[in-house]
Amino acid sequence: MKATRSQITSAVAGGMAAVLLTLGVAASAAPVKANYPDKIGKGEGQLNLVAWEGYAQDEWVKPFEKQTGCMVHRKYAGSSDEMVALMRQGGGGEYDLVSASGDASLRLIYGGDVQPVDVKLIPAWQDFLPQLKSPPNNTVNGLHYGVSYEWGPNVLLYNTNKVTPKPTSWDAIYSDAYKGQVTVPDNPIQIADAALYLKAHKPELGIKDPYELTRKQLAAAVDLLQKQRPLIKKYWAQASDEIELFKNGDAVVGAAWPYMTNALQKDGVSVADTIPAEGATGWSDTWMLSAHAKHPNCAYKWMQYVSTPKVQAEQAIYFGETPANKEACSAMDKIEKGACHKFHLDAPSSYFDQIYFWKTPRTQCADGQRNCTSYRDWQRAWQRVKG
């Protein structure tokens, strides 16, 4: 079975995660200033990556090595917190690039661990989806601290025989109608999903961004999730967990990724997914360049290479996700008929406008005020939710 992020990653929990979380916050650091190269020089012969498993497969790594002479050394991480810790290991110079998700990227930026990237040196960046050219999870004050790579929405998955009519709201996972048959991810970032729901249903809370919550707003999200707790059959840590729950009939509705929908449908399970009226959260990964990269030319060559339609299509099909490069559509369909549509790369802009991509919660809000809650606050809150 193909390896995916969801099969190797469990949520942040327990003592080790708390240690990694501590490593993931550098209060005294600041974003690195831009110091762009004039051009990409000759490769240094080596490239050290921290990546999700499945993000540096031989199918596209070997051609890159042959083309550039940059030999790729991979270190697979099992969580965003581990990625942050690895990028700070040994003074931050052990790895050149990291495929950071939105719940880690701002920690790396504000921790001074990654440096701005000159997107003019990445030609394929011009063909990226508009929403992923300069997203807030990797772009600060107009500086691009990396290039977007692949992404996916967090959708409402449901059994079409058991959940009728078709759900149009996230109410389906918060109401008693399916008590004991609901499943959601075991991850502190799930708090953002609750906040997005409250943004629509309790406007008096004043939630504008589901990742920028005051203590009052965070408390409201926690309260909603604690009330949801008796409805939960299982908090899933791996895609296979949720797939088995739906196959066995133990769950009939839950928060998921398109990967799970496609896997279940392929196995003949009667399921469908939707983005409800309130919208949805989503994840977007970014290749980020270490502030202390020892092989910057090879790193830039890698970012150029993996941003091309062919490689993005190969990655998307292997992993079960969607490219940032909209020109990858035809390449996806060449590999697997209908893949472009299946993973929504050909969707209208209104589809993407419904998605609030992950970004790291920080005490400083976008408006400059410092009354928002941090990722640490969210991690502790999630433990309270689970009891």
TrEMBL record:
<protein>
    <submittedName>
        <fullName>Transporter substrate-binding periplasmic protein</fullName>
    </submittedName>
</protein>
<dbReference type="GO" id="GO:0042597">
    <property type="term" value="C:periplasmic space"/>
</dbReference>
<keyword id="KW-0813">Transport</keyword>
<keyword id="KW-0732">Signal</keyword>
<dbReference type="InterPro" id="IPR001188">
    <property type="entry name" value="Sperm_putr-bd"/>
</dbReference>
<feature type="signal peptide">
    <location>
        <begin position="1"/>
        <end position="29"/>
    </location>
</feature>
<dbReference type="GO" id="GO:0019808">
    <property type="term" value="F:polyamine binding"/>
</dbReference>
<keyword id="KW-0574">Periplasm</keyword>
<dbReference type="InterPro" id="IPR006059">
    <property type="entry name" value="SBP"/>
</dbReference>
<dbReference type="Pfam" id="PF13416">
    <property type="entry name" value="SBP_bac_8"/>
</dbReference>
<dbReference type="GO" id="GO:0015846">
    <property type="term" value="P:polyamine transport"/>
</dbReference>
